[in-house]
Design goal:
This protein is α/β, with parallel strands linked by helices and 293 residues long. The protein contains ten helices and eleven strands. It folds into two domains: 86 residues, 3-Layer(aba) Sandwich (Rossmann fold); 133 residues, 3-Layer(aba) Sandwich (Rossmann fold), CATH 3.40.50. Helix 2 packs across helix 10, helix 6 crosses helix 7 and helix 6 packs across helix 10. The longest helix has 21 residues. It binds NADP nicotinamide-adenine-dinucleotide phosphate.
Length: 293
Amino acid sequence: MIVLDGKKTSQKLRTEIAKEVAEMIDNEIRPPHLVAILVGDDGASQTYVNAKEKACQSVGMTSSVYRLSSKTSEKELLAAVDFLNNDPDVDGFIVQLPLPKHINEQNVIERIDPAKDVDGFHPVNVGKMALGLDCFLPATPNGIIEILKHYQIETEGKHCVVLGRSNIVGSPISIMMSQKKYPGNATVTLCHSKTQNLAEITASADILIVAIGSPEFVKENMVKEGAVVIDVGIHRIASTTTESGFILKGDVDFAAVSTKASHITPVPGGVGPMTIASLLSNTLKAAKISRSI
Ligand code: NAP
C-alpha cells in the first residue's frame, strides 16, 4: 500500500510557484497578492485562513486577511467584495466559507469578479470547468487531480466512484474525472445521501473519492481490494492524547481501509496541502493574466 503524500507533492508544486514569484520580483514586478475575507470567528475557518496566509508567505506572495464581524450584513460583505474586485493591487481573493446563516453564499460568490475568483466557485469558472475550458479550477478537486498525476495513477477506463456531490468538491471532481484527458477518461458514478446500495457501489470502485463530511464513514467492506482511495474529509475529533486537545480524521477509516487499498491519502497530509497549493497556483495564474505575463 502506497500513502499518497500530499505534503511532499504540494511542496514540489510550491517550489515551482516560488520560483516564478521570485522571477517576477527579480523583474521588478509586484508579487501576486491574495486576499481572504473571513466573516465571524469560526475556529476551523480561522485555521484554514491562517494556513493560506502562511502558504502565500512561503512562496513569496503577498497575503492579507479582511476580518469582518459575524454581524456583518450581506450588503456590507458585498461592498467588501466590490472593493476587492476594483482594487488593482489585489490579484485574487477568496471568501472563506461557510458564511453566517443570515448571508446568502451564492449571492456573494456571484458578486466576485470571475477574473479574481481564485477559489473557482463563480458560475463563469464552474461553467468553463465543466466544458473543459481554461479557467480557475476549484482548489480541492484540482489538488486531487495533481496528486493523481504526481503518482501516475492510471485513470483511463477505470470506475471512479465519488462519494458526495457538493459544489466545491464532489460535483466538480466527478466532472473532471470524466473528461477526455489525463487524469480523467474514467467512468464516473456520483453518490449522495439518497444513493441506494452505497457499499455495493463504492466496493466496485477502482478509484474512490470521498467527500461526505462524516468521520471515518468509509470502512473496509466498502472498498475493493487494490482500490485507490482519496479522502477529502477533515474532522477535528476531541482527544486527550494531543496537546491541542483534538486529532484530525478523514471521511475514511484509514487504519481499516489501508489494509485493502493500493494507494490512499492520509488525513492530515493528503488532500489538504494539495488544496492550498492549488489556491497558490490559481493566484499566480490570476497575477500573470492581469499583467499579461
Ligand atoms: P458537504 O457540502 O458537507 O456535502 C456532503 C455530501 O455528502 C452531500 O452531497 C451529501 O449528500 C453526501 N452525504 C452526506 N452523508 C452521506 C451518507 N451517509 N451517504 C451518502 N452520501 C452522504 O461536502 P463538502 O463541502 O464537499 O465537504 C466534505 C468533507 O470534506 C468535509 O469534511 C469538509 O470539511 C472536507 N473538505 C476538505 C477540504 C480539503 O481541502 N481537504 C476541502 C473542502 C472540504 P446530499 O447532497 O444528498 O445531502
